[in-house]
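Model it.
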Amino acid sequence: MMRFNTAEQQAWDELISQYKLSDEQAAQLKKYLFFLLEENKKINLTAITSIQDAISFHFDDSLKSSTFIDFNSITALCDIGTGGGFPGIPLKIMFPHMQVTLIEVVQKKVHFLREVIEKLSLENTEVCDLDWRTFLRTSMRKIDLFCARASLHPEKLIRVFSPSLPYTHAKLIYWASRTWEPTKKVAPYIVDEKEYTVGNKERRLISLCAK
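Modeled.
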């Protein structure tokens, strides 16, 4: 059974304190963290293999968006290319009122995500294994906010704002490096951004919407 060493426990306690998570939320996150790292040894869910790095570059990086977005006003979230469940699952744990859709096409990850949902008893959370174009073409879900942390390039993501689709009212949050520069095609959709540091990495959260 995995356990925290002293440094890991300190990092974990700081994470829980920073985001003011309840004991129940902390227990869910810890269960998720240990399950992720154990399963990662079998099916390669993430390149991150240490507890310390997972706390920083998966959990903290996902929850940083709560300092930029008022998730209490979001009823439905869609995480595009969620991989091992980031940022969608940590955000669902922190804001359990949200309906969450996790888009992932790799079947071993789809199976893992469904196991996580069951293990953590996450309600109103589903995994969609459609690719992005098919999702946009066939889905009629009510979604307020789309998230993309480590998946598609913004040029593909902004298809969500096509006037022929039901998502022109929605917002999109994109996790970018500090040095990222938008193309001429993407720039008109940017409405706000926030710089932050997680671990030793400098990053930006980019907010986009149709104008």
